[in-house]
Amino acid sequence: MASCLAERLGDLIDLSGNERAALDKLEQRERTLRRGAVLLRENDKMSELFVLKRGTMMSYVILPDGSRQILRFLFRGDLIAMASLAYRSSPETVMALTECAVAPLERVSVADLTIEHPRLAALLIAVDQTERVALTDRLAGIGRATAKARVAALLITMRNRLRMLDATIGDTFTLGLTQEEIGDATGLTAVHVNRMLRQLEEDGLIAREGGRFTVLNEAGLARTGHHVERAAGLELGWLPDAR
């Protein structure tokens, strides 16, 4: 199976044959996780990072009052535990939301990649920055936006990410999250999330049937969620030439 990381990076630039081969080599090992299994716990010692090959995961921290703050939802091709390149212990817990498979990467493999393929190393830095900006947007929303805006932003962000993985997804998608998980990602209770989803339906922005959502008014949902389409502002022309 082709490298999931190459698939993700290949959406941003045209990878050379040598670069794809190098990324394929990174993902030779595979570890499977059942739904609900923890890959890393907060404060665990880290010696490797991972590429998510199948399934969906989330990262979170436990706050002093015992509540959970979800930081990121992770999809095929995402890098997990990038913090291991700078820290000895994990700053977050990473858990499988579905049946998952990950490819473990030794830190020395990343070091070799930076020497042999500097363009890939630079691209990983750029991708890490897109994740930082996404987290900044969510932090600003949790701190300042209304509850309805937070839920709207999460819905449109998740739909857009699912579209990146499956071009056949249109306005209807399966979110795959409980209302508690939506609440833990937006700083709301499950009851409050349910109320905001009903309001979005009443506003004619979305429709729901079971776990499936349909975006009825994309511009209105984006406006409500103060959504900024960051992909349009990417600038990767500075990357070095491929080797």
CATH architecture of the largest domain, please?
Answer: Sandwich
What's the total count of β strands?
11
Give the CATH class of the largest domain: Mainly Beta
SSE order, one letter for each helix or strand: HHEEEEEEEEHHHEHHEEH
Q: How many helices?
A: 8
- Rg estimate, integer Å: 18 Å
> Segments where pLDDT lies below 50 for 5+ residues?
none
The figure for the number of domains is 2
Tell me the CATH superfamily of the largest domain: Jelly Rolls
Mean pLDDT: 95
Biggest beta-sheet profile = 4 strands, antiparallel
Spatial strand arrangement across the major sheet: 1-8-3-6
Q: N- to C-terminal separation? A: 23 Å
Globally, the shape reads globular
Beta-strand fraction estimate: 15-25%
Which structural class do the helices and strands define? alpha+beta
Give me the CATH fold name of the largest domain: Jelly Rolls
> What is the helix content?
40-55%
Question: Which features would summarize this protein structure in a list?
Answer:
alpha+beta; four-stranded antiparallel sheet; globular; Jelly Rolls
